[in-house]
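Take a specimen:
=====
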Amino acid sequence: MEFKIVNEYLNGIKVIIPEVFKDDRGFFMETYRKDRFEAIGLPYDFVQDNHSGSVKGVLRGLHFQWDPPMGKLIRVTRGSAFLTAVDIRKGSPSLGKWMGFEVSAENKKMIWAPAGFARGFLAMSDYVELQYKCTGIYNKAGESNIKWDDPDIGITWPTNNPIISSRDAEAQSFKEWLTTKDSDNFIY
């Protein structure tokens, strides 16, 4: 079984395609294998797995954690979603730049977004489930978020009227994040 990095963006984001074996019964694929991840330069010491479900139109993000720094390997296991990652690392040549990807249970793409990137997604199908492996254990005191529609980032979401949580509606701006002492934890 193989994992292929098919694209790299913004000095850290990687699109990974796993090898999939299909026949008339269905399919089989490995979603993680320590030796193969190590061989292609991906993190291989994941410490937490998360599973999220959302109805169409739900937008979650832009979330990140600095203590401990948390990278995420994200995949969609049901439906489809528009996944985004924004570089929030001070001194990075791509600071404030974003990438967006349509990821689905059908295309089986996986997105690696390391620590120093704020991540979010929009549920595009009637129902979507995402699973993600994390390089850090969740710490509420060491996490934050940036407003999903921050004009200084300018993400082109495939909706104008998403369903968002009160936490995401009240998120700080990108400029506000850059003035906090915690933002010094992400220096390129």
